[in-house]
């Protein structure tokens, strides 16, 4: 189990986390990354994100996208985030326990 801390000018968060047992290797050295919320109303990441021209929104390129657990599979959420060019997905659990992925 790991602890992650995020700080902005007005907010500081710290939460328990664990890496998924699949996907790309994540380096242990610190690297700044832009963290964005999933763009759908419920923040679930269950929809494909394309703009009116059919292009993926460039604001997600290389960013971490935070999505909530629920309504669709973890795989579907990952696929949707991957199509945006996001560097990683942060899955927010609705329960206190960590879930093995």
The main β sheet shows up as: 3 strands, parallel
Q: pLDDT under 50 segments (min length 5)?
A: none
| Alpha-carbon Rg, integer | 14 Å
Average pLDDT score: 73
Percent range of helical residues: 10-25%
Q: Counting H and I runs of at least 4 residues, what is the number of helices?
A: 1
Q: State the order of secondary-structure elements, H for helix, E for strand.
A: EEEEHE
> Proportion of β residues?
15-25%
> Reading side by side through the largest sheet, how are the strands ordered?
3-4-5
Structural class: alpha/beta
Task: Sum up the overall morphology in one term.
Answer: globular
Distance between the termini: 13 Å
Tell how many strands the DSSP assignment holds. Answer: 5
GO molecular function: peptidase activity
InterPro entries: PA_domain
Protein name: Subtilisin-like serine protease
Keywords: Hydrolase, Protease
Write up this protein.
With 101 residues, the chain is an alpha/beta fold. It has a domain at 27-92. It has one helix spanning 74-84; strands at residues 2-7, 12-17, 35-37, 64-68, 88-92. The strands form two sheets. Strands 3-4-5 form a three-stranded parallel sheet, with helices on one face. Strand 4, helix 1 and strand 5 form a beta-alpha-beta unit. It is globular. The two termini are 13 Å apart. 12% of the residues are buried. One of its GO terms (molecular function) is peptidase activity.
């Amino acid at each position: 189990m790991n602890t992650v801390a995020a700080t902005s000018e007005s907010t500081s968060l710290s939460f328990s986390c664990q890496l998924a047992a699949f996907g790309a290797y994540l380096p242990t050295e610190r690297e700044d990354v832009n963290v964005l919320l999933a763009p759908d109303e419920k923040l679930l990441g269950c929809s494909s994100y394309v703009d009116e021209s059919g292009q993926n929104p460039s604001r997600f390129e290389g960013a971490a996208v935070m999505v909530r657990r629920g309504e669709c599979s973890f795989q579907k959420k990952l696929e949707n985030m991957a199509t945006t060019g996001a560097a990683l997905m942060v899955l927010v659990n609705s329960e206190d326990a960590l879930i093995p992925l």
